[in-house]
Amino acid sequence: MPSIRIELLINAPAEVIFDLARSIDIHAKSTAQTKERPIGGRTSGLIELGETVTWEAVHFGIKQKLTAKITEMDRPYYFVDEQVRGAFKNFKHSHEFVPVEDGTRMIDLFVYTSPMGVLGKLADKWFLEAYMRNFLMQRNLYIKFAAEETMRLHTGIDDAVYEK
């Protein structure tokens, strides 16, 4: 069972990052490379505890659908989404937001099981785990940029103006 852990330091409060991470609209923008779009359940705004969203996307040239449900939430510290239906045998995706001196440490933990037994395990080793790590990292970097840009615009401070 592969486990992918990604940590990013983001110069923004946990509340801002938490809401960006559960925003259906931000998710769709951050996954534009796979043409991901919500087609069922919560299709815009902020997903809440107990709600589902069904995504349609193109991965490996194949149009796929995946439904995930928010199974745990403690705003603004963490939430968990789990696959209800989709290409994986199962997955659990934990999102944690830890306030630190310089902002927030965002910790993603994606644990999944591929379908098709031994063939799925081979796919993990050959390409799927690396593909998923890259996919999640791109999404997290998008959230980081959006959060830090939000804070820059909110404070009205342009770092380039104040460089030493």
TrEMBL record:
Classification via InterPro entries: COQ10_START, START-like_dom_sf
GO BP terms, alphabetized: cell division
Limits of the Coenzyme Q-binding protein COQ10 START domain: 10-119
Alphabetical list of SUPFAM superfamilies matching this protein: Bet v1-like (SSF55961)
UniProt xrefs under Pfam families: Polyketide_cyc (PF03364)
Keywords: Cell cycle, Cell division
Ranges in coiled-coil conformation: none
Protein name (Swiss-Prot/TrEMBL): Cell division protein
UniProt organism field: Paenibacillus silvestris
